[in-house]
Structure formats: structure tokens, C-alpha cells
Amino acid sequence: xxxxxxxIEKNTEVVLSTARSAGTTLTGVAxxxxxxxxxxxxxxxxxxxxxxxxxxxxxxxxxxxMTTVDDPGMLYAHAYRTANLALDSITLKVAAKISGKGYRxxxxxxxxxxxxxxxxGHVSHKPFAWAAGLGWIGRxxxxxxxxxxxxxxxxxxxxxxxxxxxKPIGNGCGECRLCVLTCPSKALRYSKFxxxxxxxxxxFDADKCYKRLVKNKELLAQKHHMVEHAVTICGICIKVxxxxxxxxKKVGSNKA
Length: 256
Hints:
Layout: H1 5-21, E1 26-31, E2 51-58, H2 61-65, H3 74-99, E3 105-108, H4 125-131, E4 136-137, E5 143-144, E6 152-159, H5 178-182, H6 206-223, H7 236-240
Antiparallel strand pairs: 1-2, 2-6, 3-6, 4-5
Helix pairs in contact: 1-3
């Protein structure tokens, strides 16, 4: 028996409010019908699910501004690692809420490699976030939100619970190619796609990028003597993107 529209609305509000109260910066629902051709790995199948809840946590903008070509910075590394842990906690809470109502659910971790040779996770979080209306896929291959740019981390919850999906927004990159021109590893290629590139390889050389990420991880471990915070990061294509550089202040934020 199908739910009445108000039941679907209630489901959606419960799920999204759970994500918000758990600490997400952005959250939305994606209709998997928009992503039928999405590649999956590590034994994952989307067949038993109808929707995806996309959640995002904003990274500290100042930490990203501190990154350089020679050093991604310990503060960015710490924020990156902490954001991943926070996202995994948020998705578990959302999944628990859904499971408690009797529906199927599966969490996709914020960062987990299942194909080391091709540097791939179970599935890319970005298409889910795009379909949920959180942003568009940029020339840097990352999700770009109008307010936060790519200065966010993402995670996903899959479910068969009836929900109200969001609507994708148009690509806002235009002719900009700052990320392509400034990529230290020369891993990005310009391609004028509107929604998503035909393949990851069309815009991105994973091997070139990964070699730099590994080098940066080694640098963080040696230079800062903090092995537990040494992660595979760079951040230059995120830093140079015009989106996310100037976040609007809330009214009254300058008051004493």
C-alpha cells in the first residue's frame, strides 16, 4: 500500500531533520532514477534502493586558504579527517532512524577505497549530491555548492523509504577553468559538460592526482610528526574556485 503524499512529506522531514540535528551543513534527497548509469564497485548494488540521502559537512574555509602547493597544512588535514568521521556518524544516525521505521538502508562511508588500483570507493558521492540539488559537478570533478563551493565533504545513505527528492541545479562553472590551470599535478582536463562528464577519465587523471596525494601524506607525517593526521589531501583546486571564497554572513553576526 503506497503512502499518501503527506506521509512522504513527513518521512522526508524526519530524515532531513535527523541529519541536520546530527550536524550536517547541507542535506537533500536524490531520486536514483536520475542515476541509472552510475558506476558502482566493491560488490555494491543500487537495485534494492529508490532514494539516496546526501549529507555534507563544511570544511573550515580559513584552513583551506592556508594550503599551498608545497604544503597542504596540518589544519586542513585535521579538518578533512574530522569531517569524514563526523559524516560517518551522521549517516549512521540517519540510517538508524530509517531502519527504526522498517525500511531498508545502507550507509556509504565518506572515504573508503575499495579499488586501490583505480583509486575508487564503492560509489561516488557527488552524483547523489547533484541529484539532491546540493550543487553541480565542477570542472575539478568535485561537487560545487553555490555557497560553500567544494569546501565540503560528502557521505550518502541509500534507502527504499518513500521520500520527496530534490531537484538538480544547473552547472555554474561557465567558461572558468582556474582549477584546471592551477592543478599542481596537471591531473585535470577541461571539458565543457553540462551535468556530468561522460567518464571520470574525460576530465581527471586519477594516477597523477593520487601520486601527489600520497606525496603530501608523507610530507604531513614527516614535517609535522603527526602520523595520525597524515591524510591524502591537496586542496589547491578547491582553494582557487571562486565559489566558497566569500560566504555570506548572518544578519547581526558583527554585533558584540
